[in-house]
Fold:
Amino acid sequence: MRQEIVKLAGADKVTHPEIAERKRIERSQTALFQIAQLTTVNISEHEFYRQVHAVIDELITAEMFFVGLLSEDRRSMEFPYHVDATERNQPSRSLQRGLSEYVIRRGKALCGTTQDITALVRLGEIDVQTTDTALVSWLGVPILADGEVIGLIAMQSCDDAVVYGPADEELLTFVATQVAHVLHRRSDERSRRSRVQLELREKERTKELHARNAELEIAFAKLKQAQEQAIRSEKLASIGQLAAGVAHEINNPIGYVNSNLGTLQTYVSRLLGAMETYAAALARTGDPVAMAEVTEIRQRLDIDFLAIDLPHLITESREGIGRVCKIVSDLKDFARVDRPEAWEYADIHLGLESTLNIVANELKYKAQIIKTFASLPLIECLPSQLNQVFMNVLMNAGQAITERGIVTVSTGRTDDSVWIAIGDDGMGIPEDVLPRIFDPFFTTKSIGNGTGLGLSISHGIIAKHHGHIEMTSVPGQGTLVRIELPIQQQQR
Amino acid sequence: MYRILLVDDEPNILSALRRCLAEIDVRELDGEALYFERFTSPEAAIERGNEQDFDLVISDYRMPSMNGVEFLSRLMEIQPAAQRMIVSGYADRDAIIAAVNEVQLIRFIEKPWDDEKLRLAVVSILGSKGNGTANKAVFATRSSNF
Structure:
């Protein structure tokens, strides 16, 4: 320290050692204050070290000065600040047996001359390769954080005039404390900043996720719609196949039951007629014994009731069979949707008119029919199948009207398609029923009034035409069915 | 007397057809009675066809051993003069066309049939048989009516 003083004294042209000592203490205090100040300024880590170095350099000649920090796994050391004659950056290195490692290992400052260091080498505490032959004095102090060594600050003199002493060690120890503070604060800052960044990123991510979620919801809705469509088509296709098979199998038993019931009706009426004749013939004989016997049998077997009830029984059974026939025939129509048929260019209005004539019986007592027909081109279609669709829709319209109402039938044309809208001011369709309206066998009609196939058949027919059928309804106000059909079929 | 050959793998159909046709008033057939023979096997019906002439053959289309068109075409070789009719629940358009073309089918009636219409068809076929006007195929498939 003496040489240092001399140097400083020389610089300041101070002659008296006491004055020099006082000055040194003052400057040392100023330096400590300056370093303490530095810790509060927001500068880069390197700049902080650089300024610390500059302040120290004012007091102690520290041409070679470095800060070494242990890596997190404490197996290597890096040098965020390093100044020497080479001006090269010191690469980080794994721990060896150098002077720095010695300081770190012991957690205590090392302030030594060449001789001290040679002694340590001889003791095996350090390897000599790491030391410089030009070394005159070396001072290193550990940087401690929470009592744990995290690195060191060291300086080296190659000048015989500069030998470090206890005062230098004290100053550097103070600097090391300040560096530890700064490092601690910076790591806090870093984690705070990364937390803020993380939060920001999180917010962005959340925003992004919301956007993606919205996209997905839309995609999901579309997918669901497509799926419903697919299920519906699939359902219709399998029902069609089933229908074709079932219809044939059912037609045989229906065939003979229906025919037999007809024959039975004839037989029964003949038998009953014969019985009347027998009774009359018997009455004419006037044989009281035979007549009493016949009367007894008639009463015991309730023949009079049978004679009245039998025709009813047969009529009701035929009604039942008739209904089964209608269902099977609907099923066959349904299956027919998948059957190749002749496509032709036809006038939709002719179809609508003839269908209206056919359903007139259903409609004429209930509804006024208002037709608004536009001028339409002929369209490529399967006319009889379209008529079937019109009939189903018109029948539904008629059935929706409870007392008296209006049925509107309008047509129109867009670029390459035509539309047919059939509306009624009837009871409407409840919201929960509307999505199922095209499902096979779905019906709201009472048993015997509908098979639940009409609209699914219609849906199949329109799909086959590459058209659309839509139904909108307001319960209590009415229903509108809109059918759109391409004028020409692109591919069939 | 008119002889009618009924062929269907379902015996109940045969009974019902006979009952239905037996209700035809003989006066509509110039007093000629109807005589029925029933077979659930087309092969047995062909064997019988070798021994006996028939005026009308009414066959099912879908049968296990052979279909109605095959049966009628084999019978046609033995008895070209017998009128041919199919009553079937299997209403395949191609099958009907094949039947009309290959065996000069005179009627195709779908099951379940309407008794009155079936009787009318039989009366008209048998009634016109004698004077030879029944060579034009009448297509009675149930189609969409509008």
